[in-house]
Design goal:
Chain B: It is a multi-pass membrane protein. The complex is a heterodimer of chains A (300) and B (290). With 300 residues, chain A is mainly alpha-helical. Chain A is built from 15 helices and two strands. The longest helix of chain A is centred in the first third of the chain and has 33 residues. With 290 residues, chain B is mainly α. Chain B has 14 helices and no strands. Chain B is globular and about 75 Å long. Classes of the chains: A mainly alpha (300), B mainly alpha (290). Chains A and B meet through α1, α5, α6, α7 and α8 of A and α1, α4, α5, α6 and α10 of B.
Chain lengths: 300, 290
């Protein structure tokens, strides 16, 4: 009796949930179920159910492969370098923007600094080629005017690292200021005035008031970044990388694409993808645990 | 040095440095526009930096007369609109029931959804799923797999939760059904967040690339990004191999590639200034419960 009353009242809510839940079950849990491919000798004719179990053979093969460790190393290397270069950039930019007194200048610079975030990596790839190209690229033109020879920003793996990192800063630094600026508006204005009365200069105020005010935000963002160490987007390394710099540009996500969909080794590619998902999960949970310990606030 | 002068020096240096950063942000755009508007000779000689030399509109004329490029743009506009509408309908349909704390099974549903934020099957099982559903080379391969972003869903749920409960209760006393409450009370109050999330979905779809690379081989269904990628990748390879020695092909003129990049960038730059405040408020919403 009670149940029918409840249902008559709420059936519309369940009706609304049907399609969304179906979406999650089919398009999210479907692939999770498909992960068993990693333990099977998968081929298309027999399908997932029909293919034979091979236990951990594919894992053994992956963990003996040189390419796997190279892409794992590259993933960690690019992420760590990115963290070192790209992490402080928005913090510095945000403090600089916060100190600007002319509102119109502040707003204009913010608007412009956000733009690259909305440009796709494919388009950025096109721009990178035009800017860093050896023949007519902007940077090489500039270097030539100073009397330096062309620098192979796209074809030498060490210079390519610079290109990859610089592009990342360009794309994300402005956008990253938003969270810091939001945190900065939360700082009590009186603190700044008190410091001024006490005779603290601008740099001193930044050091003693602004930065401590951002401490929690910095810690949280740092932890999130560390949690994502093994995750790496596909578009950026794929579009900016090329055959000449594969030694550094081949990362886990591009490796999965290459072995799986270009060479048809579905089982091996699934193993690598599963490895990345499991290790990534451990990293994220670890980061959340650390965040709870340090800042009393979980990120989950 | 007095307090005032040191303050003034700080402000001046700060504004100058910020101006430099802003210019660095803009320079690549100017460069690519300049290349697209310059003659091939000027580009190859390396004379073009930030302003066009020997103004030449040939590149744009060829991009615009390339029907496949224009078709790709049209298809991408259609795809983006379709995806955004579907995503928003589904996200609202999921968010509204989940705001009802009394809903039986709510915790289970939330768990099912949140798990997918932290673990996924990976691209190979996803590809096989899309293939088994016979979605390869259809528009649906680009729409269905990304219908609901759990992250945006949580933003929407927390926004709905912020709407005063008394409004909902008053509607219920007046005899409104659940659908009635959703359409007459909740949605009209949620327009800002609906606009923000629609924009995020739209930008994501507009810029999306990997799924089209995996699922689409028919050229009529190439979104702009995939079309552009092929053009750009050609040029990257030729630039890279050019170092190895002479005699490498010059596939397409530089100015044509640059014009194509500009062509694909302009739509988003045109709408950007109007949408900016939504973008920013969206990040703030996300930051509340990130």
């Amino acid at each position: 009796m009670r149940g029918t009353v409840y249902f008559r009242r709420y059936w519309q809510l369940y009706a609304l949930l049907v399609l969304p839940l179906a979406y999650f079950v089919i398009f999210k849990y479907g692939p999770m179920w498909g992960v068993q491919i990693a333990f099977k000798d998968f081929n298309f004719f027999q399908g997932i159910m029909g293919s034979e179990w091979i236990g951990l053979d594919a894992f053994r093969e992956v963990f003996h492969s040189h390419d796997f460790f190279k892409t794992l190393r590259n993933t960690l290397m690019l992420n760590i370098l990115d963290l070192i270069v790209s992490f402080p950039a928005p913090l510095i930019l945000a403090i600089m923007l916060f100190e600007v007194k002319f509102q119109w200048f502040k707003r204009l610079s913010q608007t412009i600094l956000y733009i690259p975030h909305f440009i796709s990596w494919v388009i950025i790839g096109g721009i990178v080629y035009q800017v860093f190209g050896t023949q007519s690229g902007l940077v090489n033109n500039f270097l030539a005017s100073l009397g330096f020879g062309p620098v192979p920003f796209l074809s030498d793996k060490h210079y390519w690292l610079f290109t990859y990192l610089a592009t990342g800063v360009w794309q994300s630094a402005g956008w990253g200021t938003i969270l810091y600026l939001a945190a900065l508006t939360g700082i009590n204005r009186d603190l700044f005035e008190a410091a001024e009365v006490d005779g603290a200069g601008r740099l001193k105020r930044i050091w003693h008031i602004t930065l401590p005010g951002l401490k929690t935000t910095i810690a949280t963002l740092l932890i999130i970044n560390l949690g994502n160490m093994i995750a790496i987007g596909f578009d950026r390394p794929f579009v900016i990388g090329n055959k000449m710099v594969m030694d550094y540009s081949d990362v886990l996500s591009t490796y999965v694409y290459r072995t799986g969909l270009e060479s048809g080794q579905y089982t091996l590619a699934t193993v690598v993808g599963l490895f990345q998902a499991v290790v990534g999960l451990v990293f994220v949970l670890g980061a959340n645990y650390a965040s709870k310990k340090l800042t009393d606030e979980g990120i989950l | 040095m007095t307090e005032r002068t040191s303050n003034r020096i700080f402000d001046t240096v700060n504004v100058i440095l910020l101006t430099i950063f802003v210019l660095i942000c803009l320079a690549p755009f100017f460069h690519i526009v300049a290349i697209s508007l310059s003659s091939t000779r000027a580009v190859v000689s390396g004379a073009v930096t930030l302003l066009p030399i020997d103004l030449d509109l040939k590149a744009y004329r060829s991009v615009l007369s390339d029907m496949s490029m224009v078709h790709s743009l049209g298809f991408t506009v259609f795809l983006t609109a379709l995806t955004t509408v579907f995503c928003m309908i589904m996200t609202v349909a999921a968010a509204y029931p989940l705001t009802h704390t009394k809903l039986k099974g709510r915790k289970v549903f939330m768990f099912i959804i949140v798990v997918t934020m932290f673990f996924s099957g990976g691209i190979i099982p996803e590809y096989i799923l899309v293939q088994n559903l016979h979605l390869l080379n259809t528009v649906w391969a680009l729409v269905l797999p990304g219908l609901i972003s759990p992250f945006y869903l949580i933003i929407l749920i927390s926004f709905f939760n912020g709407i005063p409960n008394s409004l909902v209760e008053a509607a219920e006393i007046d005899g409104a059904t659940q659908f009635g409450t959703l359409f007459k009370i909740i949605l009209p109050l949620s327009l800002p967040v609906i606009a923000t999330l629609s924009l995020f979905y739209a930008v994501g779809r507009w810029n999306g690339f990997q799924d089209s690379l995996l699922y689409i081989t028919k050229t009529e269904l190439y979104p702009l990004q995939l079309k552009l990628y092929q053009l750009v990748q050609n040029s990257m390879i030729s630039d890279v191999t050019r170092n190895e020695g002479p005699g490498v092909l010059h596939s397409t003129p530089e100015s044509l590639k640059a014009a194509s990049v500009v062509f694909a960038t302009v739509p988003i730059l045109l709408v950007y200034p109007w949408l900016q405040r939504y973008f920013v408020s969206g990040v703030m919403l996300g930051a509340v419960k990130g």
